[in-house]
Amino acid sequence: MIDVRFPTALQIMLSLALAQAESVELLSSAQLAEGVDSSPTFVRRLLAPLIQAGLVRSTMGRDGGVSLSVHASAITLGEIYKATMGEKRLWTGRSDIPHRCLVSCNVERFFANLADEVDESVGRLLGARTLAEALSELRTIDAERI
Amino acid sequence: MIDVRFPTALQIMLSLALAQAESVELLSSAQLAEGVDSSPTFVRRLLAPLIQAGLVRSTMGRDGGVSLSVHASAITLGEIYKATMGEKRLWTGRSDIPHRCLVSCNVERFFANLADEVDESVGRLLGARTLAEALSELRTIDAERI
DNA sequence: CGATATGCAATAATGATAGACACATATTTT
DNA sequence: AAAATATGTGTCTATCATTATTGCATATCG
Questions:
Q1: Which pLDDT tens digit goes with each residue over A71-102?
Q2: Do A121 and B122 touch (CB under 8 A)?
Q3: Domains within chain B, CATH numbers bracketed
Q4: Which nucleotides of D are covered by protein (CB under 7 A)?
Q5: One MF term in GO for this entry (chains A, B) (predicted)?
């Protein structure tokens, strides 16, 4: 099954950013789930690491829900990515390749280095964008739809 | 199951580059499969688009096999990636999200744009490296293993 | 105390990827 | 010409990471 955690977490964060901009106090996981066309449980699972990372604040009990814990302009897409994907790398090579020649003995490390560079590259790209900018881009895209 | 096509194709290409450097004429899919610890069928399926892209030359029939069709210094890792992964993007968003608000109406396009930027970033990184340089790095790593 | 939210664990369903096998086709050797 | 052995490809099955579902404990408001 294809991994949709980051796109989904991003949409959730954008929804929370919109709520923040419109001074809506809290959104419930059920409301967010409706927006991302998924289940409240899945949404809460995605929220857990975002809360852990201090990007989102949750209120338990009746009338509870979640909201951004800081302003959207203080959150980068890189933080969202790192929180939701954890240690999982963008690329993972094969492991336990039998060591038989120059290539098979060293590709594993070579590929890991390459994957590191890719991760850093993507990290820089996402780290340079804030959630507030992303919401603004969303508005631009919306306007261009005519 | 995790997608190992690119790391595997890369290892295959590195093996072919090593063969080229050592003046070995051809490698069979069975020999390559042993090196990557996989099946000849899988290797041939990975080779197909590389042949299609003109990076690899194959000889059919008994004593057949494959070899690089040009020198390893004329092949970039970007070409290998593009050939083996085709149109598949590094990131794919959800599709068919119900359109209910500013966010749900436009995230799809927003995410596609972001994925495009990531692809370009990775493409630049891989496009700047040749297979010959990669083989050289493999030798460096091998030497550092002491 | 009832209603309703989050938090979390366990289990089932889904679906992309790799493996296995069959067989047509191409080429060399005998 | 036939045998041996390689590539090329289609189909079916197995694997397994991800997502969905369910159940229940916990927290908070009215």
A1: 999 999 999 999 999 989 999 999 889 999 99
A2: yes
A3: 5-88+130-144 (1.10.10.10)
A4: 3-10, 14-23, 26-30
A5: DNA-binding transcription factor activity
